[in-house]
Each structure stands twice: as C-alpha cells, then as structure tokens.
Write a structure and sequence with these properties.
There is one protein chain. By secondary structure, the protein is mostly helical. The chain has 6 helices and no strands. It is about 75% helix and about 0% strand. α3 crosses α4 and α3 runs parallel beside α6. The radius of gyration is 24 Å and the shape is elongated. It starts with a helix and ends with a helix. The relative contact order is 0.07.
C-alpha cells in the first residue's frame, strides 16, 4: 500500500468514485463543467459550507470575547473589570466563560 493510498482511501470510501455512473462532460465552458461535478456531491458541499460558517462564527465570537477582556482590563484595570463587567458578561455569554476566565487569569499573573 502506497502513501497516496493511505491518504486518499478515506475519501474514496466516502465518495466512491467508481460507483458514479458515466455522464458526458459538458463542453459549454468551465462554469458548466464545475456545475456538472458539483451537482454529484451537493450534500457533501452543503455540509462543508454549513460547518465552515459555524466555525467562522465561533472564531469571531472568540476574537470578540478576547478583545472585550483586553479592552476592559486595559481601560479599567483587572480588579475593576472583574468586579464590574465580569459577572454580567458571564451570565450573558456562558459559552465563552471558560475562555474569558483563562484570559483574565493570565492577565492577572505577574
């Protein structure tokens, strides 16, 4: 078994390229060719698109949460930030509580 077999076998078992019935390739241009191949894997492409959108939303929320902590500790100081804004933020966004707490703890370390 070669290295390429190890790399591509999971994709070949998922898509099964040899089980796809033959259809002639369109000759109307590159966009028609792209649509021709994409139409065979609509479900997979839709799942990838949804997952990419969800991951980017999580990334944006993480960046926003970290910037909130950095701005709060820079403007007010760590003690005032934890006393005034921290409880409200943790009740409002419980999903980012652990990340904000870890970042705030590292800000307090000497």
């Amino acid at each position: 078994m070669s290295l390429s077999d190890l790399i591509y076998r999971p994709f070949e078992t998922l898509i099964r390229p040899l089980d796809i019935p033959y259809t002639p390739l369109p000759s109307r241009g590159p966009f028609a060719l792209l649509v021709h191949f994409a139409s065979k894997f609509r479900g997979v492409l839709a799942a990838v698109a949804v997952l990419m959108i969800a991951i980017e939303g999580i990334n944006l929320a993480t960046i926003w949460g970290i910037s909130f902590v950095v701005d709060g500790t820079t403007a007010k100081g760590a003690a005032a930030f934890l006393e005034e804004d921290w409880p409200t933020r943790c009740r409002t966004f419980p999903s980012v509580r652990v990340r904000l707490l870890a970042h705030a703890a590292s800000s307090l370390a000497p």
